[in-house]
Design a protein that fits this description.
The structure is a single chain. The chain has 63 residues and is mainly α. It has one domain: Nutrient germinant receptor protein C, domain 3 (GMP Synthetase, Chain A, domain 3), CATH 3.30.300. It is elongated, with a radius of gyration of 17 Å. This is Spore germination GerAC-like C-terminal domain-containing protein. It comes from Ureibacillus galli. InterPro entries: Spore_GerAC-like (IPR008844), Spore_GerAC-like_C (IPR046953), Spore_GerAC_C_sf (IPR038501).
Length: 63
């Protein structure tokens, strides 16, 4: 996850995961100020990820 975020932020500098939409919804006033330069801003912000998963099955299947 970290390497993917690093690549889209630093190499491509494009918000392909649409963090901007989340910013627009949760912080509309701030979004109005930064939306025109969002790709540049996105490439400079720090992103923290928290992953939670559930194992629903284990072992080999398909016999």
């Amino acid at each position: 996850m970290k390497s993917t975020l690093d690549k889209i932020q630093n190499e491509y500098q494009v918000d392909v995961l649409e963090f901007g939409n989340r910013m627009r919804i949760e912080h509309p006033r701030l979004w109005k100020k930064i939306k025109k330069d969002w790709d540049q801003t996105f490439s400079q912000v720090s992103i923290n990820c928290k992953v939670k998963f559930t194992i629903k099955d284990y072992g080999t299947t398909g016999y």
